[in-house]
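Internal QA ticket QA-208
Title: Verify multi-chain structure generation after dependency bump
Assignee: T.L.

Test input:
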Amino acid sequence: MAAITTTAGRRAIPWGWIFGLGIPALVLARIYYLVNVVEVRDYAFFIGAMVQSLQLGSLYALIALGYTMVYGIIRLINFAHGEVFMVGAFISYFLFSGAPFALPWALLWSAVLAWGVAFILNLWRGSMTHPTVIAGGLVAFAALTFLLSTFQVNWVAALLLSMLFTGVLGVVIDRVAYRPLRGAPRISLLITAIAVSFLLQNTGLIVFTRNQTPFRPETDWTAFLQFDVLGGTVYTSRLMFLIPILTAVLVTALTLFVTRTRLGKAMRASAQDAETAQMMGINVNRVIATTFLLGSMLAAAGGFLWGLNFGSLNQPAVMGILPGIKAFAAAVIGGIGSLPGAVIGGLLLGFLENFMTALFPRQGDFPGLTEFKDTFAFALLIVVLLVRPSGIVGEDLSEKV
Amino acid sequence: MSDRETLLDMRQVTTHYGPIRVLHNVDMQIYPGEMVCLLGGNASGKSTTLKTILGIVRVSEGEMYFRGERADTLTTAERIERGMAVVPENRRIFPKMTVRENLEMGSYLRNDRKGIREDMDYVISLFPRIGERLNQMGGTMSGGEQQMLAMGRALMSRPKLILMDEPSMGLAPLFVEKIFEIIKTVNDEGISVFVVEQNANVALSVADRGYVLQTGEVVLSGPAQELLANEDMKKAYLGDV
Ligand SMILES: Nc1ncnc2c1ncn2[C@@H]1O[C@H](COP(=O)(O)OP(=O)(O)OP(=O)(O)O)[C@@H](O)[C@H]1O
Ligand SMILES: [Mg+2]
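Actual output:
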């Protein structure tokens, strides 16, 4: 016989308080020690680390949102998402470095982008064959063909067009690879996702490049920036404003979409109970396609900003892997399926990576933790899974079934 | 009755889940303004019948007509646009959406803002308790409140025919009576009701007609009063009356 336990008899450990207050206290103590006792760092250095954390964390958050949205709605860990991020980065690169294109190429680009415009109009109008949709697609096709074959593309246009292009890629991946498997065992879907991921990596090698690629669009936002604070100097760039602000704008737009629009509400309804959503007349496949569209658009924005932040893109076969896995870890840490969770998890990971290396610098025989930078995400993932398997803001998963 | 125009007409409908046949040559008619109940034991195919009518489950043989139009080839959304709505088994309220958002999902396919607002007011007048809790999360409502919300959600599509799957399930007897009173009110407004019930006594006392399903086949049908008096019915579904 199992003993009867009540909540009153079994006091829960207040992990929230322990972590929420304990960790910042430890960090502050350590900073004080490094600055005032052993004097190997100044306070400005840690301000700089915070700035960097926010930048990197924003990037993880943008990618993590795609994982969490797709998981929320079809319970798939979309292993191809890191590669979608990679494609987004390269597409924006080709746009700002390649345009104006020769006419055949301009036609090809415009075809994909115009299809994206038509698809978005179709979400609003309800059918791909609606006159508005067809007209919008054709106008976009003509206009883009002209623009892309005539003018250079500045960074804003490159960002937006890359988001559109990559959004189309996400929709196509869902339509071709995942949708035929609705209702199939989840493992089939997972294996397919891995296959899509390999396919994109190798297509990238063939179509894009096989080399590390410098990523330098013409913009003032990458300009060097330094400011004095707390008796030291912080060295950074204007990206310290651009990346977090752009991320905040996109996250706000996404939040407004899922809380205010009909399609966004249908998305939440489908994530909570797909069959009932269908019983309300919601076209769940269309909602899923929208999820892929938005998740991939955010990943493309992440890819572009990633390029700006690091000044170069890794070669296509590897570029998406580590950011992808870390962003996935961020989504799980925050609570997979939850949008705020993905943002919190992403930011947390950004801070963790920068602060672990900042707090434990090379000192005498101790080599510092820089070498282990990439392992912190997974260490934190393990801790969170042990302490709170549903993630920081995630609800109990058993509740969902 | 047969010379009247049907609202819903199922002719020799058979459905399958994969290779397993669940409904077999089901013939059912619902006439405008009627309240019809569907009775039957567990796993007899009652929920499947509703899902077939709504298009969640496909008709594999036979035909179905809704308001004179061939309906078994329509999508679920098209059937809803033509006037079907469902109150699913176990209510199936969206737990992480507010009561208001749940109602909005009921009017998902509509574009007439004014009409939607009117229907929202109508639902609130029918269920004042829902009106008081528009901003509460659906999942935090009590079972009875969720049942009312599910009915309100169905009404939000301004349906011609409401399909209800065991609205009395898990509710206290007094509340069951109240729910059926409201169903009757809705029916009196001219909305046809097709209600699945295990609680045969209550259902037959308010319905016009009934069908009895056994392992996917209609074994008995007729006016509610006749079914209440039927000897086989008494033994099988009505208990010791
Ligand atoms: N999605 C499904 N896949 C396979 N079989 C199913 C599915 N849904 C229902 N069935 C089977 O179809 C039969 C009829 O199920 P149905 O839910 O229609 O019964 P019911 O009369 O509503 O029962 P209850 O009174 O318990 O709700 C059952 O044997 C059930 O196991
Ligand atoms: Mg049932």
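Spot checks passed. Residues 43-74 of chain A form the longest helix (32 residues).
Status: verified.
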